Every structure is written in C-alpha cells, then in structure tokens.
Amino acid sequence: MFEVLTDKTYRHLFLAQLVALLGTGLATVAMGLLAFDLAGESAALVLGTVFTIKMVAYVGIGPIAGAFADRVNRRALLVTLDVVRGSAALCLPFVTEVWQLYVLIFLLQSASAAFTPTFQATIPDVLPDEARYTRALSLSRLAYDLENIISPTLAALLLVVLSYDALFLGTVVGFGASALLLISVALPSPKAAEARGVYDRTTRGIRIYLATPRLRGLLGLSFAASSAGAMVLVNSVALVRGDLGMSESALAWTVFGFGLGSMIVAFTLPRLLDHVSDRSVMLVGGLIMVGALLAIALVVVVRGLSWPLLFGTWLLIGLGYSAVLTPSGRLLTRSSHPEDRPAVFAAQFALSHACWLVAYPLSGWLMTAFGAVAAFVVLALVAALGIIAALRAWPSEESETVEHTHENLPLDHPHLQGHRSHAHPLIIDDAHPKWAQRF
Question: For residues 267 and 110, what is the distance between their CA atoms, to the nearest angstrom?
C-alpha cells in the first residue's frame, strides 16, 4: 500500500489530506463539547443541526464547484480554500451563541464543499494506474481513520491540561500545514471540457452519475453508510456524556473505536479487492453496519448500555463504513472520462452528502425524542433500505468492458477510431446517452 508514497506529488497530497483531517478531527471533538456547553441535554439536536448545515453547504456548493474546477488552477484553488477554512476555524473558540456556531460552520463547510471533490479528482490524474490508485484510495481511507483515532487520542491528552477551545487552534494549524504542502508541488489539471452552458456544466456530473447503474448502487450504499455514521457522529456525545455519565476524554476514546474498525479495513482492502468484486465488499460492509445497530439495540433492551458494548458497536460500524466507502473512488474513475472526472466526483460528493442531510437531523431527533434504542433500530432500518435500493439499481457486477456499435456516428469520428464496432469501459457520455437503459 505504502509504495505509492514514493511519488512526490502524491506524497505531498496525502500528507496535506492527513494534517487537515487531524485538525478537523480535533474540531469535531471540540464542537461536541461546545454544543454540550451551549445546549446541555439538547446537545444532540444542536449537533444534528450543525451537521445538517454542513450537508446543505456540501449539496449546494459541491456540484457548482465541480462544474468549474477544470477552469482554474487546481493548486491555487485548493490553497485558497484551505486559507478560508483556517480563518473560519480561528473564530470558533470565540463562539458564545448557537447561531454564531451555525454561521461559522456554514462558511467552513462551503469551502470544504469546493475543496474535497477537487482534491479527490486530482488523485487519479496523479496516479493513472488503477492498481496504484486503489492503494492510494486505501491510504486516503486510512487518513480518515487516523483522524478518528489520532485526533480523539490527541484531544483526550490535550483536554487533561487545556480547555476544549484550544482544540480549535489545532484545526487552524492543520489547514495551514495543508496549504503549505499543496504549494510545494505542481498539480496536474485535465484539459478543459468543451464549452457548455452554465446549467449543462452544473448538472452534467449528476446526470452522468444517475445514468450509470454502478453509481446508482453506490448512492444506495452511501445512504446506508450515512445512516450508521450519523448515529456515531451525532449521538456519541449524548450516549457517553449523558446516558453513561462519563468524562470528556471518554467521548474521544469512544470515537476511537469507530476509527479503529475503519482502519483495519483500510489495511486489508487493497489485497482483498484484487480477488473480490467491489460490489460484494460494499454490500457486506452495509450488512455489517445494519447488524451492529440491531444487535446493540437488542442488548440495551435486555441488559442496558455499557461503554464496552458501545465501543465494540462503533468498531463494527467502522468496519462496515470503510468497506462501503473505500472502493467508491474506483467506481467513479471507471465511470467517467478525465475531463468529466471533477464533475462526477463532485456529484458523488453532493449526492452522498444529501444522504447525510437526511441522516444527521433524523439521528439527532430520534435520540432526543425517543432515546437510544429507537435511534438504533430506526437508523438500522433506514440503512437496510439503502442496501435494498443498491441491490435493485446495481443487480450484478456488470462487465467492465462493453461491446457495442455506433450506427449514428461516421467511421472517421474520433470516438470510433476507424471501427464502428468496439469496446471500452461503461461510461455514460454524449456518445452513449442511452446505455443506462440496457443495464
């Protein structure tokens, strides 16, 4: 897995992602504690609103940013967005009212909505070989897992001697270091797509996405992952600080369990994907999350909630979560041309976060209104619906190469390369607008 770090450009990109995520992880812990201070027993509802605002920014800004990402210098764009995120994080320690938290989160996450899909679409251009790219995806997943492990651990240690406000300064340092690492390398930019209208450019990625069977399946599985993930991210503070009456450090160690499970999968997945299909791995991951949520609900009813039980459940959800999300970059890359890749990655970013837009407030409301057992059961059922939708949209692992003809194109058309009958990976585009009807 780690051999891809010999590529200097990718190494700097990975390190930039890692330090920014570590800073973000510190902010996640700090925001949970800030919400508890501002709203007390309603902290889950406040956090649900915070994450909902985050998703609104992602869903609204992501497709627009992806549509125009090929028109600007990638490095300049990413560095500027890091500066904006760092500036917003710098203001968070001074928040005294809930509405101030909401405004700053919207600003920070709007910048992230433009940053993340542009960053993700850069990786396959840096590492065009699929085997190396697969390992890069696992490293990227590992970076997210390290956020869930190192950040809570570091937060727990810092909280012994500092107030949680100081954790936000770590977020500022993370974004600043990310910007410096991005400045240090030249990033490839794909050739711009042909000139299109604003509407066409803004919706193109989503139209390609929704016309592709494997990506519709990915959307269903993303919905399952968001349902289970929202239980972890929104309700951990209420379960640990409220129901169990444990310390601030215990909250950090609880989130550690989720990251640990995800990291285990990130280490094992590259070799597994050499032998098992993406679809099979992702479906099993979804089933693990559903099973974990239903199992903890049953145990809580019979024996009550305990911290070891919560930690173990979060670890299992982390396993399933990583199994669903890690292969997604491979599916997106196979389903798009290089010039459309930023738009398709942005479509995944927006549509997957639209799932979170449903899951975050639902999770917070269920926990606040009905308690932990109802939240576990309902979110498990919602995740199961996502898996069923994925099975219907993506009924089997379709062939990666499709034999077909183009009777409507002249033989000298560049797409045909002199032959009316040819084969290539399934990609929905202007030459293949109706392929989705065949699968």
Answer: 31
What letter would DSSP give residue 426?
Answer: -
DSSP character at residue 69: G
Cα distance between residue 325 and residue 141, in whole Å: 8
Q: Each residue of 74-133: pLDDT tens digit?
A: 788 889 889 998 998 888 888 888 888 888 888 888 888 788 777 777 787 787 776 777
For strands 401-405 and 421-425, give the pairing: antiparallel
Ramachandran assignment for 245, one of left (phi > 0), alpha (psi -120 to 50 degrees), beta (any other): left
E-strand ranges in 126-248 read: none
Tell me: the pLDDT tens digits for 204-262?
A: 777 888 888 888 999 999 999 999 999 998 888 888 888 888 877 787 788 878 878 88
- In contact, 126 and 7? CB cutoff 8 Å: yes
3-class DSSP state of 439: coil
CB-CB contact of 67 with 346 (8 Å): yes
| C-alpha span between 108 and 111 (Å, rounded) | 5
* CA dist., res. 27 & res. 247, Å (int): 18
The amino acid occupying position 401 is: T
CA 382 vs CA 216, 297, 312, 388, 432: distances in Å? 17, 15, 21, 10, 34
Tokens of 219: 């959307």
Q: Which of 81, 79, 103 is nearest to 92 (CA)?
A: 103
pTM of the model: 0.67
Residue pair 326/265 in contact (Cβ under 8 Å)? The answer is yes
Closest among 342, 339, 341, 75 to 186, alpha carbons compared: 75
- Rounded Cα gap, residues 427 and 425, in angstroms: 6
Q: Say how far apart CA 17 and CA 340 lie, in whole Å.
A: 23
Are 133 and 330 spatial neighbours (Cβ–Cβ below 8 Å)?
A: yes
Q: Measured between alpha carbons, how far is 261 from 315 in angstroms, rounded to an integer?
A: 4
245: tokens are 């009456």
CA distance 188 to 81: 18
In 326-340, alpha helices (H)? 328-334
Residue with tokens 């919706």: 203
Residue type, 18: L
